[in-house]
Amino acid sequence: MYQSALKELTGNAISFVITDDEKEFMVNSKILDVSQLIPSHFIDNLEVVTNSAYPAELQPRDRANRLAMRESALKMAKNIRPADLLSSRNLNQGAPAVRKDNVVLNGNGRVMALLYAYNNGLADNYKQELISQAPQLGFSVNDVMEIENPVLVRVFLNDLSAADLQSVISSNAGGSKFSPTEQAKIDAEKISDEIFGYYVPNDKGDLTTADNQTFLAAVLNAVCTRADLNAYLCNDGRINSTGVIRVKNTLFAAAYNDDSQISLMTESTDNNIKNISSALLNVAPNVAKLVKRMNSGELFQYNLSQAIITAANKISALRDEHTSVASFLSTKTIFAVDEMAPESKVILAVFDANKNSVLKITDFINAVIKNIYAQGSPNQTSLFGSNDPVKFLTLLKISAVDFVLPSILSDIFDTPVVTIKTEDIPATVETEKLPATVE
């Protein structure tokens, strides 16, 4: 579909674009055939199709599964307003913004619309306007006329840092708004360990306590523009309920990065596991910091986030089906596809045994986190020539001993559970924010 040998016209009018967080970037205009652009998605037979050539990490939107996004692109394609796709200082309006290799960074919806319009004979007015505006844009009319399906884009002249790239791809003022789930995942990338350290857990997973006002303010200052921040403040300067919800969504995205759980917390009005969700919120800062350290290689890799989410989703589904956890755990299946990983079964058993206590579920997950830290770093050299960590399943069983009857775990695995003491947590581990285990 995409052609690389076609003519590209580079303009000579350097300008600046501005992002939602008020960063300015130098760009130059370029005109090329629309088929040379690399958008995240395109529309084929009225369906949104993912472009396999597009770097997935650059597109925070879930366009293929969002009917509203498809309808927005189709509406634009069927009613092209050329002036809206040419000059603008706002990054989210005007010509799409691309890298030097024609990968679209901001304006994927606009490119989707233009591709569809050109492919369906709906872009004649856009092409004629582009030709007539060519001299003002710094191009030759004849050169533009030689391109079959011309499109104006803005090219970033300098390489973008990771932070700048995030600002560019997440800017949407004046364009289509992100869903709460999409916005949460974008926000999560902006939260530092220092900010996570401000969170003070409590027995209800409540962000609105007096102890957490500093945390709320720090998160919103990190993720919001100055203009957006006002929408989250009461007249007396306190953070309103909308601001609290945005912070909560950010926490879940940073810790668990699971669309189903983020959606449950951010978009669903029917959360049937509120105590568990409150506990997951309580431990989210510690889980997020742990995930960062595991991903950076400072700690051994344990798939804790996924195991937690699998257990949370399963207990939610069982409640919808009016099936007890005990019945589920006692049922043996011959179909491997239906089998839950044993690690998630341990967590599920603990969730069920402590379903009435936010704090006990909080303590359990924090115990797991402490035991992961206790395994040390893969970069450490053992005196005995081996630096193998405890297996994840074993580590979870150790952590669960104080929170679920050993007989329950024995029933799950058909073997007795042996209590094993872990080594002391290294003094360098930041555990001062972790609440003490409730007896």
Sequence-ordered SSE layout with sheet pairings:
Layout: E1 8-10, E2 15-18, E3 24-33, E4 41-44, E5 47-50, H1 67-78, E6 97-98, E7 104-106, H2 108-119, H3 124-132, H4 134-137, H5 141-145, E8 150-156, H6 162-170, H7 180-188, H8 193-196, H9 213-223, H10 226-229, H11 241-256, H12 259-266, H13 274-295, H14 304-320, H15 325-330, H16 342-353, H17 358-373, H18 392-400, H19 406-413
Helix pairs in contact: 1-2, 7-11, 11-12, 11-13, 13-17, 14-16, 16-18, 16-19, 17-18
Characteristic key phrases:
alpha+beta; 6-stranded mixed beta sheet; two-stranded antiparallel ribbon; 19 helices; 8 strands
The computed structural class is alpha+beta
Mean pLDDT over the residues = 82
Total number of helices: 19
The main pleated sheet reads as:
6 strands, mixed
Which runs of at least 5 residues are low in confidence (pLDDT < 50)?
415-439
Rounded to the nearest angstrom, the radius of gyration is 26 Å
Question: Quick one: how many beta strands?
Answer: 8
Name the overall outline.
elongated
What is the share of helical residues? Answer: 40-55%
Task: Give the quaternary arrangement of the chains.
Answer: single chain
The proportion of strand residues reads: 5-15%
Terminus-to-terminus distance: 64 Å
Order of helices and strands: EEEEEHEEHHHHEHHHHHHHHHHHHHH
